[in-house]
Backbone:
């Protein structure tokens, strides 16, 4: 993967970072999603994310102090080991129209994905992290700043084999968001 590793940089030990748990696609799923994102962006007159930025957010934490990252690492490890790998079939096109976002989603959310999100939000709440109140709507953003509608129809399904979860920090740069992988864990019991 060519994403930038987490850079120590000139940050204070108590600096905070904008943090989220996510699924990052493996190369076959990423390539299929990148092609779909290009088509969607053309159709909706929006901007596709760069391929390496395509992801599905499991839990968004907002700003987290550096001193709390160890707790998130422990949560990631525990949650990942409790859920086996699974296949996520993205067979649905949708949009958050107000936000100008077009996305790919699943008409059926796999129980393993529901479980991942449920375990994460339970563990995060227990550790005092603010959690999302809105219902989880799994999606991969394919285009932003859309000026027109994207197809609401079902395009060819993309079967994504999900084998790991990641903890990420995000930085907003003039050219768009830059995500840094802080940690990743394989799904399923440790070998
Ligand atoms: P940018 O905000 O820089 O344009 P971005 O939205 O991808 O890019 P972040 O805002 O850091 O970057 O968000 C990281 C991930 O968390 C994205 O997948 C985003 O959709 C999701 N996210 C952001 N805010 C929330 C929120 N309040 N609730 C749920 N998910 C969120
Ligand atoms: Mg954002």
Residues:
């Amino acid at each position: 993967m060519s994403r930038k590793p987490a850079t120590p940089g000139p940050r204070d030990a108590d600096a905070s970072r904008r943090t989220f748990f996510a699924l990052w696609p493996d190369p076959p799923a990423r390539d299929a999603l990148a092609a779909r994102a290009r088509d969607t962006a053309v159709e909706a007159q929006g901007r596709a994310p760069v391929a390496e930025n395509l992801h599905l957010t499991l839990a968004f934490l907002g700003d987290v102090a550096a001193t709390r990252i160890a707790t998130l690492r422990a949560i990631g490890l525990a949650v990942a080991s409790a859920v086996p790998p699974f296949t996520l079939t993205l067979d649905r096109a949708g949009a958050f129209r107000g936000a100008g976002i077009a996305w790919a989603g699943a008409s059926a959310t796999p129980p393993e994905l529901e479980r991942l999100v449920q375990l994460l939000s339970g563990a995060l709440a227990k550790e005092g992290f603010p959690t999302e109140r809105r219902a989880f709507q799994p999606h991969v953003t394919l285009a932003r700043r859309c000026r027109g509608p994207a197809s609401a129809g079902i395009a060819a399904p993309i079967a994504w084999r999900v084998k790991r979860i990641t903890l990420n920090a995000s930085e907003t740069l003039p050219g768009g968001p830059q995500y840094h992988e802080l940690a990743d864990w394989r799904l399923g019991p440790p070998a």
Observations:
- Strands lie at 16-23, 56-65, 86-90, 92-96, 101-105, 140-143, 158-162, 164-173, 176-186.
- The pocket of adenosine-5'-triphosphate (ligand 1) is lined by residues 18, 20, 57, 60, 132, 170, 172, 177 (CB under 6 Å).
